[in-house]
Amino acid sequence: MNIVVLVKQVPDSGSERGLSADDKTVDRGSANNVINEMDEYAIEEALKIQEAHGGEVTVLTVGPQQAAESIRKALSMGPDKAMHVVDDALHGSCALATSKVLAAAIGRLSPDLVISGAESTDGRVQVIPHMIAERLGIAALTGARKLVVDGATLTVERQTDEGYEVVTAATPAVVSVWDTINEPRYPSFKGIMAAKKKPVETLSLADLGIAADEVGLSGASSAVVEAGKRPPRQGGTKVTDEGDGGVKLVEFLASEKFV
Amino acid sequence: MAEVLVVVEHSAGAPKKVTLELLTLARNLGEPAAVVFGDPGTAESLSAKLGEYGAAKIYAAEHADLTGYLVAPKATVLAALVGQVSPAAVLLPSTQEGKEIAGRLAVKLDNGLLTDVVDLAADGTATQAVFAGSTIVKSQVTRGLPLVTLRPNSVTPAPAPATPEVTAVEIALTDKDKLTTVVDRVVEQKGSRPELTEASVVVSGGRGMGSADNFKVVEELADLLGGAVGASRAATDSGFYPHQFQVGQTGKTVSPQLYVAVGISGAIQHRAGMQTSKTIVAVNKDPEAPIFELADFGVVGDLFKVVPQAAEEIRKRK
Ligand SMILES: Cc1cc2nc3c(=O)[nH]c(=O)nc-3n(C[C@H](O)[C@H](O)[C@H](O)COP(=O)(O)OP(=O)(O)OC[C@H]3O[C@@H](n4cnc5c(N)ncnc54)[C@H](O)[C@@H]3O)c2cc1C
Ligand SMILES: Nc1ncnc2c1ncn2[C@@H]1O[C@H](COP(=O)(O)O)[C@@H](O)[C@H]1O
């Protein structure tokens, strides 16, 4: 089973993040950029399936030059090769445009299975997997906490507010995963060394037959018109428990009419 | 007045609160028209409540295929409806399914999409809180109509009684809509507590709880306040509490009137899911815990003393 894993580079969610002042796109220049956390679970799941069923695992990233670092990091976990779509015109792309580029790249790789994270920590849109499936006319099984591969049949358990759903489809398909699905491996020293020699194919928009004005800021289907920092919350009263902390807490709740 | 399509999320025979929020918001942009997906009879059973919050019309998309396959059929039906009625906007809940339907609809219509919106103006300008709530942006769809998903608990539902007329929607699906079959829906636990994202009070426990058993302390306080129970990732990862109750960057985003953080340090990824709460209260034994930087009221102390005492005090006052 040939698998494409979608890996996005994002600003570290544990650090200060912002929008750049000039064009209000995600500030990637000053940020500490890392692999989107959920995508590490996607890589792990792909490797587990490869171990059980064979085939090839390809990392696919749409992103700026610096995303190459994250691609190497992803490869050091074990995938065989990578495809990096990089083009200045992509800067500021909306989800709709990003899904178009991803779908075109996946079309060239024609895998049996695409695995992605359930959401990215910068945009948190959670739409890319279904957008890709819609564009390619293939099945989507999203939000997986468990994936079972049986021949060409995929079965996924996905968490809902009330419990979970079990959904099934045949390959080719897109599966997106949450962090409950597995425990990503750490790259070994050997893996890190091997990653340096793994092939990374770099493609431009032209290679994919996509015009520059279909993507990026000029081709975006939505726009940020205003952006500002939310005023930081001010800490309020802090009391130290001297045997009456619980009572004081309730006095506060009562003063705010919660009790 | 142009119609505003509102996709109804419902469970156990009632619209969810976010649906009432959407109907309230839709009235800024036009005449709310609710779209109900479900088995035959669903729209009729929801119509009184939807009417109470201003639905002038209800489009009933009732067929077993709509619930038997994942998401895709709903997007197809919605796209056809958009073509028929040329609505002023399409609004959905910012839930997993709401976003997924919206994503497919955006592709079908080649229409921009704004997710996790907390407010929407009459001209379609949406307000979003991004990067763990630290940045507020205003955005617009620049291609197509405003296609927006609303984060639950962003708007106060306000009644505006109407008598909706129920219209059956024609359902024309293709094989491509039926690629992913739902074989089972399992209800794990549906207790008496309100749903996490819709609750007006949330009491969350963190690593400081120490064990699954100790979560009783948090549950007791939540029940006395009529609230939902949440957990930090450290607590869900340690198996203290089920994963679906995780609050934060990789869990649920909550925005209740009152958020009580118990034994939670207040890491940036946890804040991401709760810092737009109206009032924040924290109990932590470490006076330097970052959670105190955003707490309106904080108690430095042992949670196993403070929280049970608070519960006892509430009981006394009742
Ligand atoms: C990409 C990414 C995504 C993440 N997503 C999330 C997310 O969605 N949600 C989330 O919560 N975290 C998330 N995290 C993890 C986050 O960084 C923190 O590790 C986590 O929030 C810590 O949980 P905690 O506060 O319960 O634990 P700790 O940080 O260990 O804090 C426990 C607190 O309990 C206090 N305490 C202990 N015993 C007692 C006692 N008896 N009485 C009173 N106080 C006591 C301690 O003083 C301490 O402050 C994410 C991390 C990453 C890298
Ligand atoms: N530019 C990108 N390159 C590669 N994968 C991406 C990109 N954007 C999104 N993805 C994938 O889609 C998933 C969901 O992203 P999102 O819909 O943006 O929340 C991510 O976890 C990634 O696996």
Automatic annotation (TrEMBL), chain A:
Molecular function as annotated in GO:
electron transfer activity
Q: Which cofactor does it need?
A: FAD; AMP
Domain named Electron transfer flavoprotein alpha/beta-subunit N-terminal: which ranges?
23-212
| Pfam assignment, any one | ETF
Q: Does the keyword Electron transport apply?
A: yes
Gene3D superfamilies with a match to the protein in the record: HUPs
Q: Matching InterPro entries, A to Z?
A: ET-Flavoprotein_bsu_CS, ETF_a/b_N, ETF_b, ETF_beta_N, Rossmann-like_a/b/a_fold
Entry keyword Transport: yes
For this UniProt record, give its keywords in alphabetical order, as a comma-separated list: Electron transport, Transport
Fill in the subunit field for this protein: Heterodimer of an alpha and a beta subunit.
What is the role of this chain? Answer: The electron transfer flavoprotein serves as a specific electron acceptor for other dehydrogenases. It transfers the electrons to the main respiratory chain via ETF-ubiquinone oxidoreductase (ETF dehydrogenase).
The similarity comment for this entry is: Belongs to the ETF beta-subunit/FixA family.
Protein's name in the database: Electron transfer flavoprotein subunit beta
- Originating organism: Rugosimonospora africana
UniProtKB/TrEMBL annotation, chain B:
Q: Which GO terms describe its biological process?
A: fatty acid beta-oxidation using acyl-CoA dehydrogenase
Concerning Pfam families, the annotation shows: ETF, ETF_alpha
Q: Where, in this chain's numbering, is FAD bound?
A: 207, 232-233, 246-250, 263-270, 284
Give the InterPro entries listed for this entry: DHS-like_NAD/FAD-binding_dom, ETF_a/b_N, ETF_a/FixB, ETF_alpha_N, ETF_asu_C, ETF_asu_C_CS, Rossmann-like_a/b/a_fold
Note on how the cofactor is bound? Binds 1 FAD per dimer.
Domain Electron transfer flavoprotein alpha/beta-subunit N-terminal as annotated: residue spans: 4-189
GO terms (molecular function) for this protein are:
electron transfer activity; flavin adenine dinucleotide binding
Q: Does the keyword Nucleotidyltransferase apply?
A: no
Keyword annotations of the record: Electron transport, FAD, Flavoprotein, Transport
Q: Could you say which cofactors this protein requires? A: FAD
Q: PANTHER family per the record?
A: ELECTRON TRANSFER FLAVOPROTEIN ALPHA, ELECTRON TRANSFER FLAVOPROTEIN SUBUNIT ALPHA, MITOCHONDRIAL
**How does this protein assemble?**
Heterodimer of an alpha and a beta subunit.
Please give the function described in this protein's UniProt entry.
The electron transfer flavoprotein serves as a specific electron acceptor for other dehydrogenases. It transfers the electrons to the main respiratory chain via ETF-ubiquinone oxidoreductase (ETF dehydrogenase).
Family to which this protein belongs: Belongs to the ETF alpha-subunit/FixB family.
The protein, known as:
Electron transfer flavoprotein subunit alpha
This chain's source organism reads Rugosimonospora africana
